[in-house]
Write a structure and sequence with these properties.
By secondary structure, the protein is of the alpha/beta class. It folds into two domains: 197 residues, 3-Layer(aba) Sandwich (Rossmann fold); 163 residues, Rossmann fold (3-Layer(aba) Sandwich). Helix content is 39%, strand content 14%. It is built from 15 helices and twelve strands. A six-stranded parallel β-sheet has the order 2-1-3-4-5-6, with helices on both faces. The protein has a six-stranded parallel β-sheet with strand order 9-8-7-10-11-12, with helices on both faces.
Length: 373
C-alpha cells in the first residue's frame, strides 16, 4: 500500500510542477539540504561569494526517518517540498549536499543544473545504491520508486580515488563526477579562523587549555543497544590525569552519558572541536578526513566492526586507514600514548583529498559556468 501511495504522490507532484515550470527562471541559486535545519558551513561559504552576483535561497530541513518518519513530520515536510519545487522551477542552479526527493522524482527544465555536493569529504562507509537492502540502507523497491539520487548533472568528489565510490553510491556515470573539494576545507588551514574558534571554545571550557584533548566522534548507529556500554568501557580506561575527553555524539543519537569527567558538548560542532583536538577517536565516520587534514592523530574504536560490515558495509579496506584500530577499549587507551605515524596519515589524506586550498573559489568559478557567466 505504501508503494502505491508513493507512486500516486509522485504523479501529483509532477502535475503541479509542470504548472510551476511556466514561471520565468531568475538569476538565482537554490541550496537544498536534508542534513540539518540550519544552513551548513559549506553552503554559508559558497553563499558568501555567490550572493555578490546572484540571489541565493537556502532550504535546509530534516526529515528524520525518511519514508518511515512520523505522519505529522511527513505532512510538514510535504509543504516544504512545495517550496523546494517553486525554487527549483525558477532557479538556474540547484546545489545539494544530500538526497532530495523533489530533485530526483521531478522532470526539470533544461535550464536547471543540479550539482550534488555530497556532505562527506572522503570515502569510508557504503551508502545509497551500495548499501541497498542492508540493515542501515534503503530497500531497493523504495529506492526505485523514489528514483534515489537521480537528476544530478554534476557530482563533486575530493579526489579521483573518491570518484568511483560516489559513482557506485549514486548509480551515476563516472563522467558526471568532477574533482572539487568541499568549501569547509579552506577553514582547516586558516590560522585566523582556527584562533577564533579556539578562543570561543576555551572561553566556554577553560579547562581544555590545561591538558591534551581527545575528541571522540563516533558514527551514528541505527541500533545503539550496545553503544552505551562500550562508551563507558572506553571512558573507564582514559587517563584523565593526562587527557580531557570530549564527547561529540551524532545529533540523532539517543545515548545519554552522566560522567563529570567527560565533556559532553552540545554547543560546538565536531568540526569546531577539531581546532582544539590533539587526538581524534572515531570508528567509521568521515570526520577523519577533516582531522587528517589538520594532522590530528586518528584512533579507531571499532568494537562492532563485524556487525557493522553486515549492517552497512565499508567502501574501502579498513586496514588502509591511518591509525590504531582496536575492538578493546583498554588496548586503545594504551595506544593513545604510543608513537604515531604522522607521515602515513599525510599520505592517506593526500590520496583522498587532492586539493586543500582555495576550494570555495574553485567551486564558485565552476558554478558560474552554469549561471551564464
Amino acid at each position: 500500500m505504501k508503494k502505491v501511495i508513493l507512486k500516486i504522490l509522485i504523479v501529483i507532484m509532477n502535475i503541479i510542477y509542470s504548472i510551476m515550470k511556466i514561471l520565468p527562471v531568475q538569476n538565482k541559486i537554490v541550496m537544498i539540504s536534508r542534513q540539518s535545519n540550519n544552513i551548513n558551513l559549506d553552503f554559508k561559504l559558497l553563499g558568501k561569494e555567490l550572493e555578490k552576483k546572484y540571489k541565493i535561497v537556502y532550504l535546509c530541513k530534516t526529515l528524520d526517518g525518511g519514508v518511515n518518519s512520523k505522519f505529522l513530520d511527513k505532512i510538514k515536510y510535504g509543504f516544504h517540498i512545495f517550496i523546494q519545487m517553486y525554487h527549483l522551477s525558477t532557479s538556474k542552479v540547484c546545489i545539494l549536499d544530500s538526497y532530495c526527493i523533489a530533485v530526483s522524482v521531478l522532470k526539470h527544465k533544461k535550464k536547471l543544473t543540479v550539482i550534488q555536493m555530497w556532505h562527506s569529504i572522503g570515502t569510508l562507509k557504503r551508502f545509497g545504491y551500495t548499501a541497498l537492502n542492508k540493515y542501515e540502507g534503503r530497500s531497493s523497491d523504495i529506492a526505485n520508486i523514489m528514483k534515489m539520487h537521480r537528476g544530478y548533472d554534476i557530482v563533486f568528489a575530493s579526489s579521483k580515488e573518491y570518484k568511483q565510490h560516489l559513482s557506485d553510491g549514486f548509480n551515476a556515470p563516472i563522467d558526471k563526477i568532477k574533482t572539487f573539494t568541499l568549501p569547509r576545507v579552506d577553514l582547516l588551514s586558516d590560522k585566523k579562523y582556527a584562533k577564533e574558534v579556539q578562543n570561543k571554545i576555551l572561553k566556554k571550557y577553560p579547562q581544555l587549555s590545561k591538558k591534551k584533548n581527545i575528541v571522540y566522534a563516533p558514527t551514528f548507529r541505527t541500533d545503539e543497544s550496545n553503544f552505551n556500554k562500550k562508551l563507558n568501557e572506553l571512558i573507564q580506561y582514559i587517563d584523565f590525569n593526562k587527557y580531557n575527553f570530549i564527547l561529540k555524539l551524532h545529533p540523532l543519537s539517543k545515548v545519554s552519558i552522566s560522567n563529570e569527567k567527560v565533556l559532553n558538548d552540545k554547543d560546538f560542532s565536531t568540526f569546531d572541536m577539531l581546532f582544539i583536538a590533539d587526538k581524534l577517536i572515531s570508528d567509521y565516520s568521515c570526520v577523519i578526513y577533516e582531522a587528517g587534514i589538520r594532522n590530528i592523530p586518528l584512533y579507531f574504536y571499532n568494537y562492532d566492526i563485524d556487525k557493522y560490515l553486515k549492517s552497512r558495509g565499508l567502501a574501502i579496506d579498513y586496514d588502509e586507514l591511518p591509525g590504531f584500530k582496536e575492538k578493546d577499549a583498554k588496548k586503545l587507551a594504551i595506544d593513545l600514548d604510543k608513537k604515531y605515524d604522522i607521515e602515513y596519515l599525510k599520505k592517506f589524506i593526500n590520496k583522498y583529498v587532492e586539493n586543500t586550498s582555495d576550494c570555495t573559489k574553485k567551486i564558485v568559478k565552476e558554478i558560474e559556468k552554469y549561471m551564464g557567466e
